């Protein structure tokens, strides 16, 4: 049963920051740095296009979920029995891949900050995330945790931008007139920001807070756009910091691109700041990934629905265990964004069909222009996914 509605502003900010900090994980930091090295100032165009695609995705999915008052897998099962379970498996697998990278990133962050082994840092971080879900008012704690660390990441990265002295004029110029357009970068960025579980994080959180129905659509719009705005500010700041380093001709270490970038921009202090930013990004993404993935998994069986905390703890523990066995996370972090970008067209297609086939009440009609935007994004992302798969 959904909780009673709480303060609207607090709820919206909690959902927006949950979505944004779910997106701002280790993969987010790694992808942004790597693609800036490859594309330089032209990466600004990829960011601009991904922001527009992100907004279109978020508005569609958040509105459909909130207007219906049902989680996405329940909607999908109402459309055709079994489709919701299929969607849940896709989202949970994508979330698990992301979470392996998140756990790894948390370990890397604590290694930089405290000098402890990555595996130990990963285990400690996983333990902290588990404790957060075991406290009495876990959802409220999760909201506050996401807000505080989200704002901290933005403030620290802003300082690194200041020390990196990026060429702002060139960045603006190439954002609109790029030298090259990289479809793999686009699908990876969109997948890393709203792909897989991420786009459902805020919408499912609003449902948990008791916000649903057509009357909640105006607030839903604000929450969706706020979440993308927070994630986009962080993406742009990281891009500018990396661009400043790259345009000075300073080398970026491929073994740990974002750490190298922070260190080149601000010396030893920058390296330590990277550790804090990386850990903050990773631990909030662990929380967001576990919470959202389990909102899908719990719909598959009544027993799972009644043991939500246990399933969440198991999800986090499994992610940590797999990381211990896999090792080097950099490839996983980049691949996770691409994988979730490929899941996105499937999830969007299911929900767009549902909103036009299922009864949503007499007071809600999904706007034609938003449906059109959703279809265009679905086609573009599907085409890019096919291109990416064929190039592997």
TrEMBL record:
Which UniProt keywords are listed?
A: Membrane, Transmembrane, Transmembrane helix
Report the protein name in the record: Divalent metal cation transporter
* Taxonomy, superkingdom: Bacteria
Q: Which GO terms describe its cellular component?
A: membrane
Residues annotated as transmembrane: 39-57, 78-100, 112-135, 147-165, 185-203, 224-250, 270-297, 309-326, 332-355, 367-386
Q: Tell me where in or outside the cell this protein is found.
A: Membrane
Q: Which GO-annotated molecular functions does the record name?
A: metal ion transmembrane transporter activity
InterPro entries given for it? Answer: NRAMP_fam (IPR001046)
């Amino acid at each position: 049963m959904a909780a009673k509605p709480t303060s609207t502003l607090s709820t919206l900010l909690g959902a927006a920051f949950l979505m944004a900090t779910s997106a701002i994980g280790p993969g987010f930091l790694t992808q942004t740095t790597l693609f800036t090295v490859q594309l330089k100032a032209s990466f600004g165009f990829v960011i601009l296009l991904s922001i527009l695609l992100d907004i279109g995705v978020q508005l569609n999915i958040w509105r459909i979920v909130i207007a219906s008052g049902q989680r996405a897998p329940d909607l999908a099962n109402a459309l055709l029995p079994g489709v919701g379970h299929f969607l849940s498996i896709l989202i949970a697998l994508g979330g698990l891949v992301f979470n392996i990278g998140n756990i790894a990133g948390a370990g890397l962050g604590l290694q930089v900050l405290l000098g402890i082994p990555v595996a130990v840092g990963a285990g400690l971080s996983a333990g902290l995330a588990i404790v957060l879900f075991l406290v009495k008012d876990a959802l409220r704690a999760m909201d506050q945790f996401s807000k505080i660390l989200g704002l901290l990441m933005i403030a620290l990265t802003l300082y690194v931008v200041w020390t990196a002295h990026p060429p702002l004029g060139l960045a603006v110029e190439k954002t609109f007139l790029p030298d090259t357009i990289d479809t793999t970068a686009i699908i990876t960025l969109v997948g890393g920001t709203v792909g897989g579980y991420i786009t459902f994080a805020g919408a499912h959180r609003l449902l948990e807070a008791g916000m649903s129905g057509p009357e909640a659509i105006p607030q839903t719009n604000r929450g969706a756009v706020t979440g993308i705005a927070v994630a986009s500010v962080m993406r742009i700041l990281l891009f500018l910091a990396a661009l400043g380093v790259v345009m000075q001709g300073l080398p970026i270490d491929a073994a740990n691109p974002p750490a190298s970038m922070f260190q080149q921009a601000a010396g030893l202090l920058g390296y330590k700041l990277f550790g804090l930013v990386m850990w903050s990004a990773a631990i909030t993404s662990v929380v967001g990934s576990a919470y959202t993935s389990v909102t899908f998994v719990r719909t598959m069986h009544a027993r799972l629905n009644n043991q939500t905390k246990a399933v969440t703890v198991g999800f986090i523990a499994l992610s940590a265990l797999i990381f211990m066995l896999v090792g080097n996370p950099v490839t996983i972090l980049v691949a996770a964004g691409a994988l979730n970008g490929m899941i996105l067209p499937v999830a969007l297609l299911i929900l767009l069909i549902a909103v036009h086939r299922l009864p949503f009440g007499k007071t809600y009609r999904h706007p034609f222009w938003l449906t059109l935007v959703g279809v265009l994004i679905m086609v573009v992302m599907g085409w890019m996914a096919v291109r990416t798969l064929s190039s592997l």
